[in-house]
Amino acid sequence: MARRRKTRKRRAATRPLSSLWLAVLLLVVLGGGAWYYFTQRGPGAAPPVKEVKKPAAKAAPATPVEDPDRFEFYDTLPNAEVPIAEDGKSSAAGISLPPVVTPGTYVVQAGAFPAFAEADKVKARLALLGIVAEIQSAEADGRTFHRVRIGPIDDLDQLNRLRARLRQNRIDFMVIPVVE
Predict the structure, then answer these.
(1) 125 within 8 A of 165, measured Cβ to Cβ
(2) Which of 19, 23, 43, 111 has the fewest CB atoms found within 10 Å of its own CB?
């Protein structure tokens, strides 16, 4: 008959060892945080001072030079006055826009959104009105925008009817001429 082998008893994992690792981890994190705090900007440290170099004395030009790239809207926009409805409601639906009379091809943009879901909601709202729209993605300033566009539209009567319908349903839009 075969002999029975003796089996060794296994020790259970000790809790002090896991507590030790937790304490070491905590010290490392606190040490790293303290190092970052004191190296980036210590307590009571003055903000960094930039040295300003004084330009050498130059002769002032006799006549001021007009900058050809200077835009006028910097001056006109702060002085512009926008009428506000007294009842607090938006009066945009009540204002009639002059019809587009310049022949050409146009695209109507019903919005531009950073999230695709928002653009899809506007497209669905237009679909409920029977208006076919498409979503175009475009990149501007490193950010992606999703444009809801209707068109191209060649017929001015159709364009003006569409504008009136969007206005009636309080949908903001922008008419963009297509440059060919």
Answers:
(1) no
(2) 43
Sequence-distant (≥ 6) Cβ neighbours of residue 108 within 8 angstroms: 149, 150, 151, 153, 159, 162, 163, 166, 173, 174, 175, 176
Identify the architecture of domain 101-177 in CATH: 2-Layer Sandwich (3.30)
Q: Sheet holding 134-140: strands in order across? A: 134-140, 143-153, 106-113, 174-177
So where are the chain's domains? Answer: 101-177
> What is the pTM (predicted TM-score) of this model?
0.44
Q: Which two tokens stand for residue 10?
A: 């296994």
Residue 108's CB is within 10 A of a number of other CB atoms, namely 22
Looking at residue 19, its amino acid is S
pLDDT tens for each residue of 138-155: 887 888 888 888 878 888
Q: Are the C-beta atoms of 147 and 111 separated by less than 8 Å?
A: yes
Ranges of H-type helices in the chain: 15-40, 73-79, 116-128, 156-168
